[in-house]
């Protein structure tokens, strides 16, 4: 359930009074604790909440942080009837969601997304988890939150890079939806954003995700659409992590979209002019991820761990048109290398 808030404190109070719980926990990261928590602090039930603060950024979306959260909840008397509020970006909602899914075999949680990315994507739809063994979201569970409280006020303090990062997932949703939404997203001035317009676009973007998740919550089929750009994007993200120069998830997704639209044009008939327009938008707003032919082996190996794969075959989500999905599209190693050649030379 997504609740669009005009007054987040009163919406949160109403929600909390409708839920049955014994202890309340509030999970933040070191940044959201300082810049976002003040926006909800006057919500009266929060005065009773046990606060858990973890490190900020994706390097903390790991098992050590998860242990810290489990330990804090256990030591403060958490039970299966406790409730966790995740206040933060996708790192907090993914890790907090998984902590809630696993503590005492599962407790209730509420997501309050504070980045653009977590509003339109991470906080919605029930995918929770952590990075492990150098791989993105390697360990996790599907578990839906009780509610997602969306308040775009939080975006006021978000830096430009994280805004761009979230926008990449919005562009992905637009590519999945239709030509009107795609064109609207390519003409939006991301360097000088119109926040009022963005607010409407956020709601449209969430609607795309909610609609797909409602039809296939556990990614048996249709939900693989939401992974467009991610077979390659996650490989780039893991490679950057291994190089100890992490990149924001949305940037990796944008670069992955550029690659996978090329593959779509090559294999499933996606129109070349639309591929070029989208790739140009990505180049202008996200730059390029530096790779050489020497990285191909590592990138390919990361792709072999993608969760859409079956029996050793690497599966991509491709498009034959904006809004027309080709799920479970295979690509041979030579085709993947050709895609990476295009990326190195064309981007
Ligand atoms: N579960 C899903 O369906 C799903 C979907 C997309 C992405 N993800 C995951 O989400 C994560 C990325 O999420 P993210 O982009 O939100 O990153 P993030 O949570 O790391 O937040 C980015 C940075 O912004 C700071 N921040 C958060 N809110 C802020 C605010 N309002 N003002 C100022 N700073 C703020 C954070 O402290 C952090 O430093 C990745 O781990 C990705 O794998 C999950
Ligand atoms: O909600 C989904 O489904 C997605 O795939 C959304 C993605 O944007 C997100 O990055 C997700 O965490 C990726 O999941 P994974 O299963 O590929 O790890
Ligand atoms: Zn993503």
UniProtKB/TrEMBL annotation:
It holds the Pfam family DHQS_C. It is an enzyme of class 4 (lyase). One of its GO terms (cellular component) is cytoplasm. GO terms for molecular function: 3-dehydroquinate synthase activity; metal ion binding; nucleotide binding. It catalyses: 7-phospho-2-dehydro-3-deoxy-D-arabino-heptonate = 3-dehydroquinate + phosphate. Pathway: Metabolic intermediate biosynthesis; chorismate biosynthesis; chorismate from D-erythrose 4-phosphate and phosphoenolpyruvate: step 2/7. Residues 166-309 form the 3-dehydroquinate synthase C-terminal domain. SUPFAM superfamilies: Dehydroquinate synthase-like. Keywords: Amino-acid biosynthesis, Aromatic amino acid biosynthesis, Cobalt, Cytoplasm, Lyase, Metal-binding, NAD, Nucleotide-binding, Zinc. Signal peptide: none annotated. Its EC number is 4.2.3.4. Its cofactor is NAD(+); Co(2+). Gene3D superfamilies: 3.40.50.1970, Dehydroquinate synthase-like - alpha domain (1.20.1090.10). It is found in: Cytoplasm. Belongs to the sugar phosphate cyclases superfamily. Dehydroquinate synthase family. PANTHER family: 3-DEHYDROQUINATE SYNTHASE, 3-DEHYDROQUINATE SYNTHASE, CHLOROPLASTIC. Catalyzes the conversion of 3-deoxy-D-arabino-heptulosonate 7-phosphate (DAHP) to dehydroquinate (DHQ). This is 3-dehydroquinate synthase. It comes from Pseudoprevotella muciniphila.
């Amino acid at each position: 359930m997504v609740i669009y808030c005009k007054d987040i404190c009163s919406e949160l109070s109403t929600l909390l009074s409708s839920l049955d719980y014994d202890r309340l926990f509030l999970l933040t990261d070191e940044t959201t604790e300082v810049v976002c928590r003040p926006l909800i602090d006057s919500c009266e039930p929060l005065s009773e909440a046990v606060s858990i603060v973890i490190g900020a950024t994706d390097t903390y979306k790991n098992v050590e942080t998860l242990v810290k959260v489990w330990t804090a909840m256990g030591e403060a008397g958490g039970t299966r009837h406790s409730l966790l509020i995740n206040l933060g970006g996708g790192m907090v909602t993914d890790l907090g969601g998984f902590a809630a899914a696993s503590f005492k075999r599962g407790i209730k949680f509420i997501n309050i997304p504070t980045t653009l990315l977590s509003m339109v994507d991470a906080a919605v739809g029930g995918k929770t988890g952590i990075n492990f063994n150098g791989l993105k979201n390697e360990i996790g569970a599907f578990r839906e939150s009780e509610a997602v409280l969306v308040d775009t006020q939080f975006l006021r303090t978000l830096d430009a890079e994280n805004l761009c990062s979230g926008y990449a997932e919005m562009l992905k949703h637009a590519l999945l939806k239709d030509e009107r939404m795609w064109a609207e997203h390519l003409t939006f001035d991301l360097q000088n954003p119109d926040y009022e317009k963005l607010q409407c676009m956020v709601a449209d973007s969430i609607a795309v995700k909610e609609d797909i998740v409602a039809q296939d919550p556990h990614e048996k089929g249709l939900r693989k659409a939401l992974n467009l750009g991610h077979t390659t994007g996650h490989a780039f993200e893991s490679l950057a992590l291994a190089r100890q120069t992490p990149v924001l998830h949305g940037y990796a997704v944008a670069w992955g979209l550029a690659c996978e639209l090329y593959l779509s044009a090559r294999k499933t008939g996606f129109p070349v002019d639309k591929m070029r327009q989208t790739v140009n938008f990505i180049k202008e707003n996200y730059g390029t991820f530096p790779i050489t032919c020497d990285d191909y082996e590592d990138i390919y190996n990361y792709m072999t761990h993608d969760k859409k794969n079956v029996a050793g075959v690497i599966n991509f989500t491709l498009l034959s048109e904006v809004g027309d999905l080709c799920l479970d599209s295979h690509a041979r190693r030579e085709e993947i290398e050709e895609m990476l050649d295009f990326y190195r030379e064309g981007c």
